[in-house]
């Protein structure tokens, strides 16, 4: 394993040399340039620029093919993808360790990538496939994980009705860190990486735009071989002034039916969003405290709920601010989430150990012991500064407000290079024993890493 | 010479007042001439702004073009984008879709009246955004791609006559009429003969020069006039600038579906 790690370090240095070298001509030789020579690269002679006349030219409109066709029709199959190699060393410690010296060190190297094929033979048809894979190379390597991420075909009817058939990521909720309204996609939002791709369902989708409004219907196929289930999910989006309002419904015979509404709007540089969801019952299993007995040795009974009307709600904002004199810029996102399937107060903290035992016996599923709090919030901050323009500080906080636990992550990245990003990060979880983010003890982790990433 | 509305007194009136030696006559002359809307030589600044806006409007035609956007940064090198712009001014809609680099193909902005969405093909999500934001990390802003609305967004606060290269220009100072625009203050160099903006300086609230835009080449297509070459110079980072060049300019009618989320989702990768 050490040899493998050293080989990866060598690969990293080689790639760093190639990417950082000043050969990024970007294929500009054929472009029109107002400044052709390198000598006047940073200068500008306005008198010369406006000194030759010929300011205005009358031209005939281009009568060639429709410009939008380039996005809809192409010859052959387009192939592309992305790669990411992240290597780092870290040290993690708890209060019981007495400090970093008493903690544990680790090294890791994560390799991930994607590959897609895109065929667009006509305006009315398109086929797309994308696979994703990742592997963690550590002292105990994990098996590579390669999976089909998307595989769908698009059909268009009279340029008015747009069908998509196959495994697809669906554009559903509007939440940034949390999206209880997104009841369609298989993958959940990772609050620490909220803009990452998510895995979608196998579905037949129909999209009918009507002016500024949109109507969608999805027929979703779910289940395992021999036991497929069908779900229906219609949705509408209406635009009112500067706001877009969405409303949708999800129905599957063996699942709790859900209705949802979304709102997104903007005020200046502030983007606001919110979601509300009502469900009749829940697909999760819950626990309630009971006296310890031979049937309930952990003092918890597992219950299901098919009748209670549950509410989920979230609201948040994203904003960017630039100093009037351009000295710095800051971007921020914050969101609150009311989880109608969470436990009140510190119930889950007091009973987490027993819930994990029930998970071990199979009476609870992994999804039953995730997001157990009633109230959550998350906040991220990032910025750039003219004085330290090559450095990008970022901060992220997420907390379970019900059990008082959470995590804070501070990162400083060096972003001078396009494809290589070194960074240092320190993160800390907090909360009492049994809490969601610090179930055993608060942990502090310091990491130094380098990520090489790109796409083609 | 700087000229403001209150000091636009004709030379003849001044001379007459001086000869008479009567201060009250001078004051009266000042008041009369100022109240009469200034001398004939003073341009109607609002009319100039309106003319700029109107001649950049495609009216009943759809507009589409290929935009080559090249950003030069003294430290980060050169970055090139090829973007397709689709505009329908009569409905206040536009769509910007990145065509190159291929890794970002399908990323774009869709505007429908007061709503501007950014589409991220990575997450397959639309999110509300602002015209004030920069476009794809360049020195251009989203609002640089919309139809001009200077007369609505700004009010003139002063002007002077001058020249820029071979062109006689009005140099007009503008102040934002509301806070929906990216620049609180502008100074524009407008050619006197054709009302074309040759140069534009953007100032912050503290009157610091933030960006200089140059428009050295225009094209007239149909009844509209638009800049074919635009250069944006970042005044805060020395040597950083962005050039935008238009090609394949078309006034062909576009399908209604182009200005929809459905089209954006079909275009992505």
What features would you highlight for this structure?
heterodimer, A: 456 residues, mainly beta, two-stranded antiparallel ribbon, globular, disordered N terminus, B: 269 residues, alpha+beta, 2 domains, 14-stranded antiparallel beta sheet, 5 helices, 14 strands
Description:
The complex is a heterodimer of chains A (456) and B (269). Chain A has 456 residues and is mainly beta. Chain A is 9% helix and 49% strand. Chain A is built from four helices and 21 strands. Chain A has an 18-stranded antiparallel barrel. In chain A, strands 13-14 form a two-stranded antiparallel ribbon. Chain A starts with a helix and ends with a strand. Chain B has five helices and 14 strands. In chain B, a hairpin with a 2-residue loop joins strand 12 and strand 13. In chain B, helix 1 runs antiparallel to helix 2. Chain B is globular. Mean pLDDT of chain B is 81; it is low at 1-40.
């Amino acid at each position: 394993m050490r040899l493998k790690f050293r080989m990866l370090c060598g690969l990293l240095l080689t790639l760093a040399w190639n990417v950082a070298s000043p050969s990024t001509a970007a294929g500009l030789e054929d472009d029109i340039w107002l400044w052709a020579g390198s000598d006047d690269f940073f200068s500008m002679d306005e008198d010369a620029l406006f000194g030759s006349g010929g300011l205005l030219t009358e031209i005939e409109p281009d009568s060639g093919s429709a410009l939008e066709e380039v996005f809809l029709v192409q010859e052959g199959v387009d192939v592309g993808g992305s790669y990411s190699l992240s290597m780092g060393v870290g040290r993690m410690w708890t209060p019981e360790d007495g400090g970093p010296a008493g903690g544990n060190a680790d090294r890791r190297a994560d390799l991930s990538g994607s590959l897609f094929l895109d065929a667009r033979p006509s305006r009315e048809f398109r086929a797309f496939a994308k696979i994703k894979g990742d592997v963690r190379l550590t002292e105990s390597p994990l098996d590579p994980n390669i999976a089909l991420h998307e595989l769908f075909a698009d059909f268009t009817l009279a340029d008015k009705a747009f069908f998509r058939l196959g495994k697809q990521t669906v554009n559903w909720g509007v939440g940034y860190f949390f999206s209880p309204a997104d009841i369609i996609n298989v993958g959940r939002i990772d609050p620490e990486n909220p803009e990452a791709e998510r895995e979608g369902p196998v579905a037949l989708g129909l999209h009918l735009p009507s002016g500024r409004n949109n109507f969608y219907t999805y027929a979703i196929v779910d289940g395992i071989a021999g036991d497929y289930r069908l779900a229906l999910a219609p949705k509408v989006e209406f635009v009112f002034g500067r706001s877009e309002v969405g409303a949708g419904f999800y129905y599957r015979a063996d699942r709790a039916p859900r209705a949802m509404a979304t709102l997104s709007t903007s005020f200046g540089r502030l983007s606001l969003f919110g979601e509300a969801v009502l469900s009749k019952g829940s697909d999760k299993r819950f626990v309630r405290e009971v006296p310890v007995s031979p049937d309930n040795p952990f003092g918890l009974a597992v219950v299901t709920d098919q009748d209670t009307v549950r509410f989920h709600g979230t609201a948040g904002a994203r904003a960017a601010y630039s100093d009037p004199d351009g000295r710095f810029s800051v971007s921020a996102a914050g969101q609150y989430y009311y989880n109608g399937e969470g436990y009140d107060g510190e119930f889950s903290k007091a009973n987490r150990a027993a819930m994990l035992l029930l998970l071990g016996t199979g009476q609870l599923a992994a999804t039953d012991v995730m997001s157990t709090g009633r109230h959550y919030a998350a906040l991220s901050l990032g910025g750039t500064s003219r004085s330290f323009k090559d450095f990008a500080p970022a901060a992220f906080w997420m907390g379970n407000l019900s059990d008082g636990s959470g995590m804070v992550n501070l990162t400083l990245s060096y972003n001078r290079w396009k494809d290589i990003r070194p960074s240092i990060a320190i993160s800390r979880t907090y909360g009492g024993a049994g809490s969601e983010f610090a179930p055993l003890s608060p942990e502090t982790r310091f990491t130094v890493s380098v990520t090489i990433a790109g796409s083609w | 010479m700087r000229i403001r509305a209150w000091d636009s007194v004709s030379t003849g009136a001044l001379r007459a007042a001086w000869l008479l030696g009567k201060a009250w006559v001078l004051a009266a002359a000042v008041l009369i001439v100022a109240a009469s809307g200034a001398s004939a030589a003073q341009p109607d600044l609002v009319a100039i702004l309106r003319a700029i806006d109107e001649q950049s409007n495609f009216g009943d035609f759809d507009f589409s073009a290929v935009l080559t956007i090249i950003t030069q940064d003294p430290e980060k090198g050169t970055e090139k984008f090829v973007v397709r712009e689709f505009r329908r001014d009569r409905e206040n809609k536009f769509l910007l879709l990145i065509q190159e680099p291929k890794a970002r193909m399908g990323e774009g902005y869709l505007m429908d009246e007061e709503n501007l969405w950014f589409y991220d093909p990575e997450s397959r999500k639309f999110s509300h955004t602002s015209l004030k934001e920069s476009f794809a990390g360049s020195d251009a802003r989203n609002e640089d791609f919309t139809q001009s609305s200077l007369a609505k967004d700004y009010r003139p606060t002063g002007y002077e006559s001058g020249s820029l290269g071979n062109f006689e220009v009005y140099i007009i100072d503008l102040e934002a009429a509301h806070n929906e625009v990216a620049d609180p203050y502008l100074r524009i160099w407008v050619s006197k003969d054709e009302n074309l903006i040759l140069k534009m300086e953007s100032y912050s609230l503290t009157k610091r020069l933030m960006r200089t835009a140059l428009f050295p080449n225009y094209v007239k297509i149909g009844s509209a006039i638009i800049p074919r070459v635009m250069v944006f110079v970042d005044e805060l980072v020395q040597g950083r600038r962005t050039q935008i060049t238009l090609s394949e300019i078309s006034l062909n009618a576009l399908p209604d579906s182009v200005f929809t989320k459905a089209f954006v989702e079909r275009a992505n990768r």
